[in-house]
Specification:
By secondary structure, this protein is mostly helical. Helix content is about 85%, strand content about 0%. The chain is globular.
Length: about 300
């Protein structure tokens, strides 16, 4: 009997130590996320600090992209902490958080398409750029982007409500809150896969065509070589961002499948790695790319950072 108790205590001790290790490993991840959220917030503040930023189409689009990615990162970190702390939500609360996450998640690829088209017009049609890329047209494009993403969320809510929740004993979820447990009816899963596929294939085609158009224009004698080369590099970065954003859509299904074959401690450790490389990292690229590459943003951003350092 004593040996059984000793073995049970030893196993419980190992589980406690493993969970403690996972919780401790989540601290640097949370700290890193806070740093990136601070940097995103500083970028958003910078993009509203000068008239040139809210009177220029590319900066307006960048602000929209950063805002959506900041909200997405904040919600993703909240869901991550709830999972690590083993907190289960009710279906209504989880559904609300996931729908807001899905809304902001869909903004990034759509905004990257609009930003790519703006660069294409700037290089390939420079004389018509000012007439086509106006503040009004930019605002209209942003409204269309949010409308498409909102329509997707609305359809997801309608499909979710077809599930007979009244037949459940409790609205408390058995799994941790993530997009996958909310795919309660088969049609929801089919729609989610179809929408994601159409969205990213369409976005990839649009960005790739813009890149090819700019690359061809760069060979023309009448084109500004330096501007075309910079635009081509920007579009290439957009393709990379798009690919990384796509990785975040498979994070939930991949984590669910891994949880079925591994013990909880190993699963949580792998979840940390997946979260960093598939959820956190893709959303941190925009401020790093534009904060470093754009001379106008870089100067004001450094000024704000220096001012904060001096005040502290």
């Amino acid at each position: 009997m004593d040996k059984v108790l000793a073995g049970t205590n030893f196993t419980a001790g190992l589980q406690y130590r493993g969970i403690l290790d996972v919780l401790l490993s989540s601290v640097p991840i949370t700290g890193s996320c806070c740093v990136f959220l601070f940097f995103n917030g500083l970028m958003l503040h910078t993009l509203r600090s000068k008239p040139v930023f809210y009177e220029t189409a590319c900066y307006i689009l960048l602000y929209n992209l950063l805002f959506a990615e900041t909200v997405y990162m904040l919600l993703s970190q909240l869901l991550y902490l709830l999972s690590v702390c083993r907190i289960r939500l009710t279906y209504p609360v989880c559904g609300f958080l996931i729908m807001i996450t899905n809304l902001t998640s869909g903004i990034s690829p759509l905004t990257l398409v609009v930003m790519s088209l703006e660069r294409y017009v700037a290089v390939c049609c420079p004389l018509r750029h000012a007439a086509i890329i106006t503040i009004r047209n930019t605002a209209l494009a942003i409204i269309i982007v949010w409308s498409i993403s909102s329509l997707n969320v609305f359809i997801q809510v309608i499909l979710l409500l077809t599930f007979p929740f009244e037949d459940l004993e409790s609205l408390q979820m058995k799994d941790f809150c993530s997009p996958t447990p909310l795919l309660l009816v088969p049609i929801s899963e089919h729609y989610d896969k179809a929408y994601t596929c159409v969205l990213f294939v369409s976005a990839a085609v649009a960005v790739t065509c813009s890149y090819i158009g700019v690359a061809i224009a760069a060979r023309s004698a009448s084109t500004d070589k330096a501007s075309a080369h910079k635009a081509r590099n920007t579009l290439l970065l957009h393709l990379i961002q798009l690919g990384l954003s796509l990785s975040s859509t498979i994070h939930g299904p991949l984590a669910t499948e891994i949880s079925k074959v591994l013990d909880r401690i190993t699963y949580l450790r792998i979840l940390n790695v997946l979260y960093v490389f598939m959820m956190l990292l893709p959303r941190c690229l925009s401020p790093l790319i534009y904060g470093i590459r754009d001379q106008t943003i870089r100067g004001i951003l450094v000024y704000h950072l220096c001012c904060r350092a001096i005040k502290q």
